Amino acid sequence: SDEKLDLNDSKWEDIHVITGALKMFFRELPEPLFTYNRFNDFVNAIKQEQRQRVHAVKDLIKQLPKPNQDTMQVLFRHLKRVVENGEKNRMTYQSVAIVFGPTLLKPEKETGNIAVHTVYQNQIVELILLELNSIFGR
To answer: What whole-number distance in Å separates Cα of residue 79 and Cα of residue 8?
Structure first.
């Protein structure tokens, strides 16, 4: 909403509140950040050989709407900083991917492959975090 928030207010001190709000924002979008029509393309990209994955994912991101690309770049740069502070927050590439994968990337209609989809969702997010500079540049 258009409500002005004071993030210095003590009610925002618990990082889980902020993280939960961020996840909720992305979960409640009418369409995921990685658009429905590209879900299978991203899954197929992550199934490729390691050397080809980064190039395939980068190309797919470039095909997304510009606002999605821009939001993705800001979000993933932030998540990378979270991982870089892993000694304090115990968040690894894999744990961030597990938390955000299913929120950012999902099929339009769930099929019986939920467990398989979850693995791919996590792998895609983890790859982008690991290869952030290759995918989005400096």
So the answer is: 21
Domain ranges of the chain: 32-136
Q: What mean pLDDT is reported for the chain?
A: 91
Q: Could you identify the residue written with the tokens 């950040």?
A: 33
* pLDDT at position 111: 72
Tokens read off for 2:
């258009």
Q: What CATH number was assigned to the domain covering residues 32-136? A: 1.10.555.10
pLDDT at position 38 over 70: yes
Q: What is the pTM of this model?
A: 0.87
Query: Which token pair is 1?
Result: 């909403």
Radius of gyration for the chain, computed over Cα atoms and rounded to the nearest angstrom: 15
Q: What's the CA gap between 120 and 118, in Å, rounded?
A: 5
The C-alpha atoms of residue 74 and residue 7 are separated, in whole angstroms, by 19
What's the DSSP call for residue 11?
G
Which of 36-61 are b and which e, b meaning 16 or more Cβ less than 10 Å from the residue's Cβ? eebbeebbebbeeeeeebbebbbebb
